[in-house]
Amino acid sequence: MPHHDFTLDPADTERLANLAGPFNAHLRLIELRLGVEIANRGNVYRVSGDDAHAVAQAERVLRELWEDAAGEPLDQHAIHLRLGAFVGDEPAHAAAGDHAPQDVAVRVKRGTLRGRGDNQRKYLHAIASHDINFGVGPAGTGKTFLAVAMAVDALNQSRVQRVILVRPAVEAGEKLGFLPGDLTQKVDPYLRPLYDALYEMLGVEKVARLLERNVIEIAPLAYMRGRTLNDAFVILDEAQNTSIEQMKMFLTRLGFGSTAVITGDLTQIDLPKHQKSGLKDAVEVLRGVEGVSFTFFEARDVVRHPLVARIVNAYEARDAANGQA
Predict the structure, then answer these.
(1) Which of 238, 157, 148 is nearest to 196 (CA)?
(2) Are 48 and 36 in contact, with CB atoms under 8 Å apart?
(3) Is 214 helix (H, G, I), strand (E, B) or coil?
(4) Tens digits of per-residue pLDDT, 95-131?
(5) Is-contact 309 303, C-beta < 8 A?
(6) pTM score
(7) Residue 165: which of 71, 234, 268 has the closest Cα?
(8) Could you give the dihedral angle defined by the CA atoms of residues 236, 239, 245 and 250, in that order, rounded to the nearest 10 degrees?
(9) What letters, b where the CB count within 10 A reaches 16 and e where it falls short, cover 289-307?
(10) Nearest-CA neighbor of 268 among 259, 255, 279?
(11) Which pLDDT tens digit goes with each residue over 200-219?
């Protein structure tokens, strides 16, 4: 892999630590955004990558951040802003996403988690390198599970201060009628899949403690109105059951230092027939927007029981046949 070496002068240990960030988080962010690899020994840096333009960009970003690091503590906001200045400077052949996705490893309670298959690897890379991410596809493809894993990893590494998991409270086809209890007890059944994913990542006791301290918040979508979410990792699950207005409301909650992941399955919409899904609308409206990533999963990406993939295929074949009829 081609590489380029350069030196950042003058050598200063505190300034180098400021540039790299906690656990080299700032360097990692530049790597993921530009598709390069960065290594250093003291103030001597090496940038490697298949794309010479991206390597040159990474050096420019590091040199400019080195200047910034002398005068102020750098944080994720500063890195994002500096990287954003280079977006319009890319030639057509070097557009984001042209390089192969880097392998993203996520540390969770039961070990290290990696994507299975190209789409899962692309999804993890997209979440690590974009502020707003859509994961669209059938049940069992790991959309929500991987998003929760990335959220837990970001929380453990202090890249975000809190995790917010959101779901629209829409009944799945059947009328559940009156549910007893207070508001939390009424809404909890809709949010149960998110609790299950968290328990698997962190364990029941730790999840309970984090919920108690509001470090993790699980809430129905209606609770998001009027809020601005800074330094948070926000996941909107079952997004196919949002209205267009709800989706727009959710997407405009995002503040500085935050990441949003929106997951859903367009074949399982439980909205009234006359109402258009906010997820379907967002896919159409936002496909070309810089900084928004889309990962589309297919039946072959299903990681549940093999029969689930065959069931998904059967329904897709029937829908395709009906569409042609």
Answers:
(1) 148
(2) yes
(3) coil
(4) 444 445 556 777 666 667 777 778 898 999 999 889 9
(5) no
(6) 0.67
(7) 234
(8) 10
(9) eeebbbbebebebbbeeee
(10) 279
(11) 888 889 999 999 999 999 88
